[in-house]
Amino acid sequence: MDGIALFTSQGLYFIFKWIHFLAGVAWIGLLWYINFVQGSFFAETDADTKKKATQQLVPRVLWWFRWGAMFTFLSGWCMIIHQIINGATLSSGQWLAIILGGGLLGSLMWFNVWFVIWPAQKVVIASAKGETTENPAPRAARGLLASRTNTLLSIPMLFLMGAARNLSISFDVTSAEAHTFLGVILGILAIVEINALTAIPESASFKPIKTVKGVITSGFILCLIIYVLLEALL
């Protein structure tokens, strides 16, 4: 027996990955619950039930949701930094380029959770409890759009996370190719995020992701686009 595996550099990487898995399951699971289950229930239930759920259920969901996002974000970047310290480069294979692509999507999703969705939902919850006179409708609409945006991004994000180690796209990636791919990803994310922060429920740019079916379909379309970019640019 050659020492304790968890006390090695690779063991540390494994711990980061394990935390990433645990937190990620909590985060993305609750993201999909909010969008696929809770939202539909709130749209169909009576006002009194919705008010009670907003007061008592939603805060509990959002606590696990936002901290799941935080620990997923932190552990993910710890994994990437660990591998860079141990020699991973953009020209040493496909892993770093693809995982950074997924990391960019995940980081934008984390930003939306903490700086768009959670602030909006705090107003909605306070309104349901009678603790604020601010009209919650605009905040709720912005939170919905950001939540739908995160659901859209979650599908290609998970694809990239899985593809980095398990889908052989290119063993001979140059730094220029990797930078081009990541630059295009940043451009796509900029467009998506501008829409999340500026669109309104009535706008044409919100329509494709307004419904559950629409956001799932759009997520797979975006995933296909990113896969084509992987094949073309790496």
From TrEMBL:
Highest taxon listed in the record's lineage: Bacteria
Keyword Transmembrane belongs to the record: yes
InterPro entries documented for this protein: UCP032086, Urate_ox_N
Keywords recorded for this protein, A-Z: Membrane, Transmembrane, Transmembrane helix
Membrane-spanning parts: 12-34, 61-85, 97-117, 151-169, 181-200, 212-230
Matches recorded under Pfam families: Urate_ox_N
Domain Urate oxidase N-terminal: 97-196
Residues forming coiled coils: none
Protein name from the UniProt record: Urate oxidase N-terminal domain-containing protein
